[in-house]
Amino acid sequence: MGKITVETCAIEGLKVITPTVFGDARGYFVETYNYNDYKEAGIDVEFVQDNQSASKKGVLRGLHFQIRYPQDKLVRVIKGEVFDVAVDLRKGSSTFGQWHGELLTEQNMKQFYVPKGFAHGFLVLSEYAEFCYKCSEFYHPGDEGGLMYNDPEIGVKWPILEGMELIFSERDTKWGGLSAYLEQYGR
């Protein structure tokens, strides 16, 4: 390998990938994805869709999950800084309901691999951020569920900066918490 460094997280399945950056006086080059390197690192996934979003400081997107068409996601930031979060929703998992967060920035170039069975979201910490992610399943309208970002049962410690006003989509203000998820989908 050598092109990427892969760190495992306390929650099984989540991985943080740091690519090798080749830089000189002209700038840099980085290979952001190579199937063979990722397969060797235990991420043998066929990605079928790439997405990109732009958001301003304080935007909190999530925590989202797909209901009938779950997705593996490989996420990264190409501009700015976000705090990225995954919550374990896998049935029978010993870490069900637990979360892990990663700081993803244009400087650290880290990627976060979030497998199927997790809710996912992020908070923009910089004035502006561009967020890219690969998905292993196509987008299906109407197939998205969500969890309340501040559910005390989950207890995500969002790094909300002093004076930061959180900005949500209307639907992200209406999700229930983990208890509501369990009532609807079971464990």
Task: Walk me through the structure.
With 187 residues, the chain is mainly beta. It has two helices and 13 strands. A six-stranded antiparallel beta sheet has the order 1-2-10-7-12-5, with no helix packed on it. A five-stranded antiparallel beta sheet has the order 9-8-11-6-13, with no helix packed on it.
Strand order of the largest sheet: 1-2-10-7-12-5
What is the residue-averaged pLDDT?
A: 96
Q: Which class do the helix and strand fractions yield?
A: mainly beta
The number of helical runs is 2
Q: Element order, helices and strands?
A: EEEEHEEEEEEEEEH
Bin the strand percentage. Answer: 35-45%
Brief overview:
With 187 residues, this protein is mostly beta strands.
List the keywords.
single chain, mainly beta, 5-stranded antiparallel beta sheet, 2 helices, 7% helix, 41% strand
Write the layout of secondary structure elements.
Layout (H helix, E strand, L loop, with lengths): L3 E5 L6 E5 L1 E4 L2 E4 L4 H6 L8 E8 L3 E7 L6 E7 L1 E8 L10 E7 L5 E4 L3 E7 L3 E8 L8 E3 L31 H8 L2
Antiparallel strand pairs: 1-2, 2-10, 3-4, 5-12, 6-11, 6-13, 7-10, 7-12, 8-9, 8-11
